[in-house]
Automatic annotation (TrEMBL):
Top-level taxon of the source organism: Bacteria
Bilayer disposition of the protein: Multi-pass membrane protein
Keyword flag Transferase: yes
One GO cellular component term noted in the UniProt record for this chain: plasma membrane
Protein's organism: Paraburkholderia elongata
Annotated compartments: Cell membrane
Protein name: DUF2029 domain-containing protein
Pfam families membership: GT87
GO molecular function, one term: hexosyltransferase activity
Similarity annotation: Belongs to the glycosyltransferase 87 family.
Spans through the membrane: 14-38, 97-126, 138-155, 161-188, 195-221, 227-246, 267-294, 314-334, 341-362, 368-385
UniProt keywords, alphabetically: Cell membrane, Membrane, Transferase, Transmembrane, Transmembrane helix
């Protein structure tokens, strides 16, 4: 195995390192879970803490109606019984996601937590396996040991499921654009992460996928309105400004775990308007770069990676567990390394991106005011653009069959 400089990479050593990282994460999850649930040690992090919000909302919606999930009067008692905590965590999700989690309220908390995490991990594993079929064994093992999985499990979040849905859209785009559009519509469970897909599809002239996404999104929203009531959407729309003001703009206790440019600016002491201005300085060129790659019909690996990176950079608010999405550009770039070898700087950037979910978790846990993810994401976007422009002269070579041959069989 070699990188662009010609140096060989010891694939067996990488597999051993990745396996060691995976075992360490499994041990930590097992120990923390046993401490909290088996030994009632409340000093340990609660595995599935954020799932408390999901399950509480499901129970409240079943008993009192969908609009009640936005009321602390109904949510606080259930949350407090499951997770003794000083502060109340509101339900900030749209009715589309509430429709998905309501069936979990029919199960016990423990049973629904296991089912929810199993679905997320299985969806993530299936998507990564589909995308990573062309990568080496070492690269595949690196993705299996990706810390974003453990972070999503310990928080009990939906980030693995959302990332798997987006990955499924990319995997199906060429062969089944209708199904790809349906996957994009499924991102209505977390609609802010699907905001750039229509732009990408228009730039890439993916009209069938765009039409499917539009129709399926409308159907998803319509079904949620019929099932939960139109007032659920009205309550959600009314609650969003309050959530944005309290949790995003003035949520000092959340900024350490919020790996966004906006949060970085707020931690630096900038005002809310100034932070929005600083934040906009990066997402705008990121979206332009992403759109350029889709207009130019760049390799799918580069287009997909740019879309995910730009999606993360655009968000003024997302939490460290959402960095599970960073698995997608990592695995796509590892797959692209089958066409053009990764340079040393690119390998370092991918390794840093791989670590970001764990870094975010510890930054939030210990209130560390250090946000590295925005810089890493900008670096990844620069790598994606460099690889696109570096590959363009290849089309002028005299031997296209030789150019199509993989330069390297592994990257990590």
């Amino acid at each position: 195995m070699k990188i662009a400089s010609g140096r060989q990479i010891d694939e067996k050593r990488i597999i051993i390192y990745a396996l060691a990282a995976l075992i360490a994460q499994c041990l930590v999850l097992a120990i923390v879970g046993l401490r909290y649930y088996a030994f009632s040690d409340r000093s340990a992090p609660m595995v599935g803490a954020d799932f408390v919000i999901f399950w509480s909302a499901a129970r409240v919606a079943l008993e009192h109606g969908a609009t009640a999930v936005f009321s602390p009067h109904w949510m606080r008692p259930i949350e407090s019984a499951l997770w003794p905590h000083d502060s109340f965590a509101p339900w900030p999700y749209p009715p589309t996601f509430l429709l998905v989690v309501i069936p979990l309220g029919l199960l016990s908390f423990g049973g629904s937590l296991i089912a929810f995490l199993a679905i997320g991990v299985a969806a993530y594993a299936a998507t990564v396996a589909r995308i990573a079929r062309q990568v080496s064994r070492s690269a595949f093992m690196v993705m299996i040991a990706f810390p974003g999985v453990a972070v999503a499990i310990i928080t009990g979040q939906n980030s693995l499921l959302a990332a798997a849905i987006a990955g499924g859209a990319f995997a199906l785009l060429s062969s089944s654009p209708i199904l790809a559009g349906a996957c994009i519509a499924a991102l209505a469970i977390k609609p802010q992460f699907g905001i750039l897909f229509p732009i990408a599809l228009i730039c890439g002239c993916q009209w069938r996928a765009l039409a499917s996404a539009a129709v399926c999104s409308a159907a998803f929203v319509g079904i949620s309105a019929l099932a939960l009531g139109r007032t659920a959407w009205i309550a959600f729309a009314s609650f969003l400004p309050l959530f944005n003001r309290l949790a995003v703009e003035h949520g000092r206790e959340l900024w350490s775990g919020m790996p966004t440019i906006f949060a970085t600016a707020r931690l630096a002491g900038l005002s809310v308007p100034a932070s929005y201005i600083v934040h906009a300085a990066v997402p705008v060129p990121a979206v332009i770069a992403m759109a350029y790659l889709w207009v130019k019909d760049a390799r799918l690996e580069l287009r997909a990676s740019a879309l995910v990176v730009a999606t993360l950079l655009v968000q003024p608010y997302f939490m460290y567990y959402d960095l599970a999405w960073i698995a997608l550009p990592i695995v796509f770039l590892l797959r692209d390394a089958e066409r053009a070898a990764l340079g040393r700087a690119e390998l370092i950037a991918l390794a840093a991106a791989w670590l970001m979910p764990a870094v975010g978790f510890f930054a939030s846990r210990f209130d560390i005011h250090l946000q590295l993810a925005p810089a890493i994401l900008v670096g990844l976007l620069a790598i994606i653009l460099r690889r696109h422009f570096a590959s363009r002269p290849l089309s002028c070579h005299a031997n296209p069959e030789q150019d199509a041959a993989p330069i390297v069989k592994s990257s990590i």
